[in-house]
Design brief:
The chain crosses the membrane at residues 42-60. The chain has helices spanning 2-6, 26-80, 83-134, 141-164. With 199 residues, the chain is mainly alpha-helical. Among the domains are: 24-80; 82-163, no CATH class.
Length: 199
């Protein structure tokens, strides 16, 4: 009877059924469940990411292809050149770099010289002003020019202010006699009429 069960035949009547065992490996089932849960949780994010990637690729596909084609042409040119041509090309590039570096150094030296000259002139001007003040003399010409310019600006502002100001009283106004034109506004006593006598 046991042999019949092991051979796959139908179990005899009254015999217990063997335990049913899952034929699928546990690792495959676990991986499938994990993938399914991930899709259920982040499915919309995956869709949005895919759409965004397609939009970006459609906009930047042409520049990227041009960049790689340019690099490919450069390498192709180098591959097709002889060793002498490659060496000459490298020497030309080094020469161009040296020229650019020399130009940069020359401009830097010129800027440093100009800055040093300006600082020297400023220092000399301060020394001259200090010596002149110690000797009781007038200040240097530069300081005089600055003060003169400031004085001219102040004078111009005062003149403009005086021209724009309006008079407080009209020119025909007299504080004692009133205005010279129009009826008189000062008080005058009554003509010849005194207080009545009697009743």
């Amino acid at each position: 009877m046991a042999d019949d069960v092991l051979d796959g035949g139908p179990p005899p009547e009254g015999a217990e059924h063997p335990n049913l065992v899952n034929q699928n490996p546990y690792a495959i089932v676990s991986a499938f469940n994990s993938v399914l849960m991930f899709i259920q949780s982040y499915g919309w994010f995956m869709i949005f990411g895919f759409v965004f990637s397609m939009v970006v690729w459609s906009n930047f596909e042409t520049p990227i292809r041009r960049f790689f084609q340019k690099r490919k042409r450069q390498f192709d040119v180098t591959d097709n050149m002889t060793p002498e041509q490659i060496e000459a090309r490298m020497e030309a590039m080094d020469l161009a770099r040296r020229r650019m570096q020399e130009k940069y150094d020359r401009e830097a030296r010129q800027r440093a010289e100009i800055r040093q000259q300006m600082e020297e002139e400023k220092r000399q001007r301060l020394i001259d002003d200090h010596d002149a003040m110690k000797a009781g003399k007038t200040q240097s010409g530069t300081q005089k020019k600055i003060e003169k310019k400031l004085e001219q600006i102040n004078t111009t502002n005062v003149i403009k202010k005086n021209k724009d100001a309006k008079p407080l009283r009209p020119p025909t106004h007299s504080p004692l006699g009133g205005t010279s034109s129009g009826p008189s506004t000062r008080w005058r006593p009554g003509g010849g009429r005194g207080p009545s006598a009697g009743g």
